[in-house]
């Protein structure tokens, strides 16, 4: 089984400068902040050799490396807890809705999960699987994140007491939307993996997505 991964290499004078000033131990601020509009947070691409994850800003038709993006969830996303058991007992949650008109009226992100750039006839069963590998809030493991469709059909849930709702398979060439819910303010690090099989070989990419939820 072969799994493609991508790493960032810093060489030469830049590496020396980072070592001297101690910046290597301090995460750099993301170059781009996205806070509203149609954004495919999980967007899979296949270049013939590698399966990769990007953030696709549909508003500007721009692809970003996940490490270069901060997804901002403003106070305007706060709404009454719809009462689903997996959303905890708090009276309010921060919600990025699956309804585009509602997202636009609140001025918040309309988050998508996309396989539309993957062609049929490449991946086994014409599907790939997205997996929520881990989730933290302010550096600690969190149970405060979930993605659900419609009234209460969970796609992903960071609840550590269950192994369910961690992976979901999508057909290639599709565009999908669901509600993204955050139960507390803070900085979330969401690690997602996309995986598929090409000619009997497993191809995958794992990326960390930063989401800042504001009071």
Description:
The protein is mostly beta strands and 215 residues long. The chain is built from two helices and 17 strands. The strands form three sheets. Strands 1, 5, 9, 10, 13, 16 and 17 form a seven-stranded mixed β-sheet that branches. The longest helix has 10 residues, at 12-21. Mean pLDDT is 90; it is low at 1-27.
Question: Summary?
Answer:
The chain has helices at residues 12-21, 100-106, and strands at residues 32-34, 37-46, 51-57, 62-64, 69-73, 78-80, 92-96, 109-114, 127-137, 140-141, 145-149, 153-157, 167-171, 175-177, 179-182, 186-198, 201-213. With 215 residues, it is mostly beta strands. It is globular, with a radius of gyration of 18 Å.
In angstroms, what separates the terminal alpha carbons? 45 Å
Structural class label: mainly beta
Helix content bin: under 10%
Number of strands: 17
Could you report the average pLDDT, rounded to the nearest whole number? 90
Q: pLDDT below 50 for ≥5 consecutive residues: which ranges?
A: 1-27
What is Rg? Answer: 18 Å
Helix and strand element order: HEEEEEEEHEEEEEEEEEE
What would you call the shape?
globular
The biggest sheet, with number of strands, parallel, antiparallel or mixed sense and barrel status, is: 7 strands, mixed
Hey, roughly how much beta strand do the residues contain? over 45%
The DSSP helix count reads 2
């Amino acid at each position: 089984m072969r799994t493609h991964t991508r790493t960032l290499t810093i060489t030469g004078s830049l590496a020396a400068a980072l070592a001297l000033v101690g910046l290597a131990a301090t995460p750099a601020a993301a170059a781009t902040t996205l806070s509203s509009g149609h954004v495919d947070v999980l967007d899979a691409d296949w270049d013939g050799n590698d399966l990769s994850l990007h953030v696709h800003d549909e508003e500007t038709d721009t692809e970003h490396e996940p490490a270069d993006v901060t997804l901002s969830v403003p106070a305007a996303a706060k709404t009454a807890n719809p009462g689903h058991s997996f959303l905890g007992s708090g009276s309010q949650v921060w919600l990025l809705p699956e309804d585009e008109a509602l997202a636009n009226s609140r001025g918040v992100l309309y988050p998508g999960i996309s396989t539309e750039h993957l062609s049929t006839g490449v991946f086994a069963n014409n599907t790939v699987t997205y997996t929520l590998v881990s989730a933290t809030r302010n550096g600690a493991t969190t149970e405060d994140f979930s993605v659900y469709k419609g009234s209460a059909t969970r796609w992903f849930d960071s609840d550590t007491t269950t192994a369910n709702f961690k992976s979901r398979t999508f057909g290639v060439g599709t565009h999908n939307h669901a509600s993204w819910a955050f139960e507390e303010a803070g900085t979330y690090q969401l690690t997602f993996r996309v995986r598929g099989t090409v000619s009997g070989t497993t191809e995958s990419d794992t990326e960390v997505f930063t989401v800042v939820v504001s009071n």
